[in-house]
Amino acid sequence: MEFTDFYDILRENLNSYRGDYDRIVDYAPDLFRLLADLLQSRDIEREDRLMICAAMGYLVAPNDIIPEEIFGPHGYIDDVYLCSVVVDRLAGRMGYRFLEEYWSGDEDLESVVGECISRASEILGDKRTSVLEYTGLR
Q1: So where are the chain's domains?
Q2: In this model, does residue 97 exceed pLDDT 60?
Q3: Least confident of 11-20, 41-50, 90-99, 121-130
Q4: How far apart are CA 84 and CA 63, in angstroms?
Q5: If you average pLDDT over every residue of the chain, what do you get?
Q6: Cβ atoms of 26 and 112 closer than 8 Å
Q7: DSSP one-letter string for the chain
């Protein structure tokens, strides 16, 4: 039996999705990988590690604010929002240049994060607060 990591599961779940939100939902696997890879860095402080783990935990939580089981790929919008907020907070402390070293996506990380926060914020509206409260990040 071959081990499939969560990145591959996310990629498989989202590869065929085409819809109004596919542009930001498609970033979920790469944002997850970035957060996971950042945990390997000795430069990540304890407080930042906890924030990263909260975002990663939220990605795998079955009953988050917009559950994937009920909403399908649309259910990743809140996950992408949270991951993007966490990456943006990390960038505020460490800079995007540092984070880019761990980014495997094809596009500029700062642009991706900005787009994800902006677009997901429009979609989530007041639910943004619930997402942050769920993870203890607000």
Answers
A1: 21-134
A2: yes
A3: 11-20
A4: 20
A5: 92
A6: no
A7: -----HHHHHHHHHHT--STTHHHHTTHHHHHHHHHHHTT-TTS-HHHHHHHHHHHHHHH-TTSSS-HHHHGGGGGHHHHHHHHHHHHHHHHHH-HHHHHTT--SSS-HHHHHHHHHHHHHHHHTTHHHHHHHHTT--
